[in-house]
Amino acid sequence: MHLILFFLFAAFCLAGAINLLLQTHPINSALSLIVVMTSLAVLYLLLGAEFLAIAQIIVYAGAVMVLFTFVVMLLNAGREERTLGSRAALTIGFPAVVALLAVLATVVLRIQGLGNAHLGQGLTDAPGQSNLVQLSQVLFHELLLPFEVTSVLILIAILGAVAIARRDDAERTAEK
Amino acid sequence: MTFLHSDVPLNWYLLLSAVLFSLGVIGFLIKRNLITVFMSIELMLNAVNLSFVTFAYQWNAVKGQIFVFFVMMVAAAEAAVGLAIIIAVFRARATLAVDRIDLMKL
Question: What is the average per-residue pLDDT within A18-28?
């Protein structure tokens, strides 16, 4: 069962990622990225990370991708054009990436001592208990300060996004 | 029926993560649209998250999953600021093609 689910959603992941590269219109790329992120959430579930699977769907496939599609539609981005730069990147960058992938794949496949992923066996030893309990115990006791600092970071990011994206007054009067 | 009950080696998860990361790098190199380049970066972040979760499973370490949680929060903040910058660039230059946004190039 685990094997079938893994292959199915790994295939979805790869198909979505390849489709992201092949599509020329940004909105199609955004939609295939949503497919990748949702299939990754299923893979997280298979690895016993329930909380992360839900967070992946809510934060990535939900919030971040809504932001992306919203910006694509707001800017009315058209098809991209192939230029000299992309052809140079293709001839030089492509072999480099293939070499990187070859190195990574040999290293990853040669690692000894990695176990098997077993369905229904998460991080916790107690059966029937979600790993949410373990996760929140560590997150809200040991790592409370980083957690709070991240909330401040998000607040600053919101303010920064608004400050960057709004038009300034000079621009607005010039338009009038 | 052994096929139905067999487990998946964790190396395969890591391999999937490596392939997704490489596809993200390729997208970063060949895409000519600013938004699509940004999406490729998100793809790379997701690929790295998958290997974090895999290693957390292997070592039975909950802190690996918490790291992924922090990566997600930082990525959300990064997406908000990055898309705001893209909107500002589009307003100044009226284009999203990365070849035309070359003010800081030598």
Answer: 91
**pTM of the model as a whole:** 0.89
CATH number at residue A45: 1.20.120.1200
Check CB contact under 8 Å for A2 and B6.
yes
pLDDT at B1: 53
Better-scored residue on pLDDT, B4 or A41: A41
Among the partner-chain residues B5, B53, B70, the one whose CB lies closest to the CB of A146 is B70
* CATH fold of B33-106: Helix Hairpins (1.10.287)
Residue found under tokens 């949503």: A34
The answer to whether position A4 is within a domain reads: yes
Contact A29 B39 (CB under 8 A): yes
Cβ contact A37–B46 (<8 Å): yes
Tokens of A16: 């979505």
Look up residue B31 and give its DSSP letter: -
CB burial of residue B94 (10 Å; 0-12, 13-18, 19+): exposed
- ipTM (interface predicted TM): 0.90
